[in-house]
Amino acid sequence: MSQNGVTANTGSTRKGVTYNNILEAAQRPTPLVPLRKLKVEHQLQSDIYVKLEYLNIAGSLEDRTADKAFQFAEEIGVVRGDKVFVTAGGSAAISYATVAAVKGIKLTIYAPKGEFALVDTVLHTLGVDVVELPVTTYSEARAQTEEAAQQKNVFCLNKFTTNAAFVANLQKTACEIERAVNNKSIGKVGAVVIPLNTGAPAAGIAAYYKGTGDHGVRVVGVTCKKDTIPEMGLDLKKDLLQEYGVEQREVDEDEAYAFTRHLIGTEGIMAGPSSGAAVLEAIKLAKELPAGSTIIVILQDGIRNYLRHFLDDDWITAHKKNVVTRKDGPQPNSTYDPKVLEYDPTKLAGEWTQDPVTKSWSHSDVEFNEFNPERPLVLDTVLDAIGKTPLVKLQHVPKAHGVKCNVYVKCEYMNAGGSTKDRIAKRMVEIAEKTGRPGKLVPGVTLIEPTSGNTGIGLSLASAVRGYKCIITMPKKMSKEKAIAMASLGSTIIRTPNEAGFDSPHSHIGVALRLKSEIQDAVVLDQYCNPGNPLAHYEQTAEEIIYDMGDKHIDLVVLTAGTGGTVTGISRKIHEKIPTAKVVGVDPHGSILAGPAETDIDFYEVEGIGYDFLPGTLDTSAIDYWAKSHDKESFLMARELIRTEGILCGGSSGCAVHYALEECKSLNLPADANVVVLLPDGIRNYITKFLDDDWMNERHFLDA
């Protein structure tokens, strides 16, 4: 991690941060968020805060353990290129695989039968070997792992895993909570509630409070009554829990699933089932504690591993769970007034112009938000976990492709909803709430948005938090994972034909316009024309890049383009502050954003980029030049980033990096040049797509 001094116009020195690898970004504390709606719903007299461990680099609390375990191994001589065995399943397996990818360790993961079921595709993409053992318990699996390691003379990480979980949560998780107490962001902690799998993290947190002499803090661990919720109670270290006084409570499986779905849709907290179970028990505990108590809930992981599980209504029905499934939402009438389709998505709604003297884009009928680089420990809502994403230097991929210069990637998948589109969703909602444009937003109003998915997730998240209904219209090619993520946040999803042009009544835009005419007081925020789209990136994303790069000069910025808001907003700010920097837009073959003469409109697989029209939010003059992308290279690069850098990014991220490296080579950038690439989203939405070998092979994207 490097801190970079920046001298501002005022003469003061600011400190930005870039990270030498994604593991360094894991040193950032995860935020705390209050559950205000549930407090009212359950008439609680105490405050419950959730700690968002799913915003860790690989998506769970286990990231802390895996990092610490490998640190212990390195202290006794394990080095890059070594073979290592470990016993782990579920989120823990992904955490160990991610750390191993960064460190260049050849990892083999062993687990009992069924423990890879929800994570096998991700593990395969991360490049680890997995061995599913014909046993049912982790104690048996550990014994067989250790025996295999001894026979093959391979180092076994199992000797460190329990201690690593204990130490990491004592030294980091508990300390982060107390930092929030010490700066008076939250009240004195009365209880910490945490899902139990091994129980070592809970014991570590309990040890922290015992070590400080604060014996009034209750640490409560939660398990499932029948051990049927993934990653709960499967490997309990009961002696450790007893030694450190961790209380144990049990939840019912179906009750936990139903409540977790409610938690996501009510508070926008995109938690996994063990996390929801812990919140459920925290609510019960709050009614036992004195009024005014503060309860912290550690959220073990997020929704990524469960989009084919309890969040999927088909899974709920097939497994006969006592959980209410979602109802179908409204469909547009088959007859409609053609006038409702009179719409021009190529015009920006409102003024945003450049000052002719200063050359800054300072004239707007929307009030600008001031840039604040701070990332508080305690947030007002989960929407405040949008932004301040880490800027990470690639260590291996550029060299492997013959690139000499420094390449930094901005990891937008670490936003609250998982993509850079969270920024524009939040900003468009803020503008509508403040100005009434393009429509008045009050609780209960219906937001309708045509989207390729990520904006829909961001708006679904904002709608859940702010109390709006939400309907998303989306082409059929977009992944099922995106649809389930939006539905879990309470939105209704309507699929439209891939082949329908933007001006067709059956396209995602046409269907949205028809629904708007039929639903009273419905509002289409309209990412294609809304100035909040590029403004979010002008005010925040670009400022974060400049701030974090500090005194490292930026030579090149490479951005994929969809609605064009990202590339327009960032480019305008970059050109204002660093006139010598060049901004490259990347547009897929089959899209016309780079200019109609560049390509015919055609189908392409990479999601979230390109269009068959020029949106009003795209200022093509802001881009210095364009690169045209292909699906195969984009997906292969995304998989390479995952496997060699531990950066769990999506297909459009691979697109941006591949063509950034091509530009670096074309320009013959020297070793001291600096290139910044924005990674729009992560793997969550694509587990059944480009992470899947069968899907890739069907499209001839994998080399024989």
Can you walk through the features of this model?
This protein has four domains: 27-58 and 163-318, Rossmann fold (3-Layer(aba) Sandwich); 64-159, Rossmann fold (3-Layer(aba) Sandwich), CATH 3.40.50.1100; 338-343 and 419-518, Rossmann fold (3-Layer(aba) Sandwich), CATH 3.40.50; 368-416 and 534-698, 3-Layer(aba) Sandwich (Rossmann fold), CATH 3.40.50.1100. The protein starts with a strand and ends in a 6-residue tail after the last helix. It has 704 residues and is α/β, with parallel strands linked by helices. Helix 3 crosses helix 7. It is globular, with a radius of gyration of 25 Å. The strands form six sheets. Strands 3-4-12-9-10-11 form a six-stranded mixed sheet, with helices on both faces. The protein has a six-stranded mixed sheet with strand order 15-16-23-20-21-22, with helices on both faces. Residues 6-13 have low confidence and may be disordered. The chain is built from 22 helices and 23 strands.
Question: Tags for this entry?
Answer:
Rossmann fold; alpha/beta; about 15% strand; six-stranded mixed beta sheet; 22 helices; about 700 residues; TrpB-like_PALP; globular; 4 domains
Q: Determine the strand fraction and express it as a percent band.
A: 15-25%
How much helix is in the residues?
Answer: 25-40%
Give the low-pLDDT segments.
6-13
Please report the number of helical segments: 22
User: Between the first and last Cα atoms, what is the distance in angstroms?
Assistant: 39 Å
Q: What is the CATH topology assignment of the largest domain?
A: Rossmann fold
Estimated radius of gyration:
25 Å
CATH architecture of the largest domain, by name, is 3-Layer(aba) Sandwich
Largest sheet, described in full? Answer: 6 strands, mixed
Form type: globular
Subunit structure: Monomer.
Family: Belongs to the cysteine synthase/cystathionine beta-synthase family.
Catalytic activity: L-homocysteine + L-serine = L,L-cystathionine + H2O
Keywords: Pyridoxal phosphate
